[in-house]
Sequence to fold (197 residues):
Amino acid sequence: MREAPGMHDPTVLPSDLPIPVDDGAARHLTGTRLPDITLAATTGPAVNLSKLQDLSVLYVYPRTGVPGVDAPPGWDDIPGARGCTPQSCGFRDHFAELKALGVAQVFGLSTQDTAYQREAAQRLHLPFPLLSDAQLQLKSAIGLPTFFTSGMTLYRRMAMVLEDATIVRVFYPVIPPDKNAEEVIAWLRTRSAGPRR
Fold:
């Protein structure tokens, strides 16, 4: 069911959304070290990805919506596009669990600018920063998968577990977005390789 104009609710995941399939676009990422790139954050100083230490979770999303502001045309028809707010809220709601499992830091990342991200982070009461890669530096540096719509190049939804800035686990595609944090937690609980923190 499609929303009426001006009635967009980014917290809702319609039941008839198309399901993304694994197109192989993220298979090369496991084992990759994050590049020497510094990204603006919604709170605190900018973050140099190559200097992340210990266990980190970086989830990537296309773009968060704003209540009452229509999504881009055809947004709900793009597999995996909708669900950025539920994905972020999932990591918010499970933040304490992630910390208890040894995750030193959690970050969300999109191509939206910091001012736009800051509104979402404050409205959603996120206890972690969102990072802005408006220049698509990670697409160029390590080939993060993207898609194009309404004049925008956006990142495809995914999540990564990092160990000292090296990607040790990739979740792609993410289905459904609101359960992504739980999927990450389940993997962290059962992982057998790597040091426990």
Remarks:
- The first strand starts at residue 38 and ends at 41.
- The two ends are 45 Å apart (CA to CA).
- The CA atoms of residues 56 and 105 lie 5 Å apart.
